[in-house]
Amino acid sequence: MRPLIDAHLDLAWNALSFNRDLTLPLDALRAAERGMTDHPCRGRATVSLPELSRGGVAVCLGTVLARCNPGVSAVARTDLDHRSPAIAFAAAQGQLAYYRMLVRQGHVTMIDTAQALKQHWTLCVDGERAGPPLGLILSMEGTDPIVTPDDAKFWWDLGLRVAGLCHYGRSAHAVGTGDDGPLTPVGIELLRRFERLGMILDVTHLSDMSFDEALDRFAGPVLASHSNCRALVPDHRQFSDGQLKRLIERGAVIGTAFDAWMLYPGWERGKTSPSVVGLEAAADHIDLVCQMAGNVNHAAIGSDLDGGFGTEQTPHDLSSIANLQKLDHILSARGYSDADLAAIFHGNWLRFFLQHLPGM
Questions:
Q1: Percent composition of the chain: helix, strand, coil (DSSP 3-state, to 5)
Q2: How far is CA 77 from each of CA 38, 100, 106, 270, rounded to the nearest angstrom?
Q3: What whole-number distance in Å separates Cα of residue 236 and Cα of residue 224?
Q4: CA 162, 118, 113 angle in degrees (round to 5)?
Q5: Within the chain, which residues score under 50 in pLDDT?
Q6: CA distances in angstroms from 10 to 23, 137, 285, listed in the order given
Q7: What SS3 class is residue 137?
Q8: Among 170, 165, 139, residue whose Cα is nearest residue 302
Q9: Rounded to whole angstroms, how far apart are CA atoms 129 and 348?
Q10: pTM of the model as a whole
């Protein structure tokens, strides 16, 4: 089994909004949701902390995720939208508190420096300690919880190291999936603060105009935590060839996502059967990034497997995050070497974060 770094998991949102005890084995977590009908993913989860360990996931980017939408009306517990930035801030703080409790309980190690990452990897992956806790780099998916640019340092001091300016629709800072437009003036100022702090910019979910402007204005490190290729599945949620080339030129790493609608053209949520797509499709996206770069140095994994869906919306041969290990055989059969596979599974993310997290 190969050690794996997953660059996108919404663990805290799942725990707080879906009321999931992620310390349970996956079968027990699913059983606890038997009979629930408030969301299609109930009883179909693919991620829990024991399952991450079983699948060799040694490090992940764990998000805090809360959107501001003043026009929101009645909401369900699992919804992401909040009426004001202050409420979004509080929701994100609650998610951070969950991660901190997992640390206290010994399930997770928070990683906010290159030295902490190196130490975690040495202790937990290179064989010096068995049964490691998960290493977690704190990420923010949509920066609405950063109420003003002055608050960027506040979040940095709390351990935030990666941030994307938006999620779906329009945020206070940029335009995201499902719409298009430029950065806002506040978003431009926030990027300036990020650059001074050393924050890593996640360009996932940026609309085309916001993507271009963000890369033009931000000189710091960039990554794409969970994004696929538009050439294979045409949708603005995916990256065009030109966008991929810009990211490769910037030294970014691009994590392939495993949401089935991002792997199969024409997927209709709630209608299309997972039987139509398998993990080979995810390998196609990884392969395309490698072909565009001319090497394997920019392709990786950002599964998003707990991003508000379960096995009703995953490849038919993936029922657990541990099934990501099947990519080893799939990519090997396509001619990828052992060194190539190590890079894709963890080496590219490890190199990137050792380079761009503060302080060895």
A1: 40, 15, 45
A2: 9, 22, 28, 20
A3: 14
A4: 35
A5: 131
A6: 15, 12, 22
A7: strand
A8: 139
A9: 23
A10: 0.96
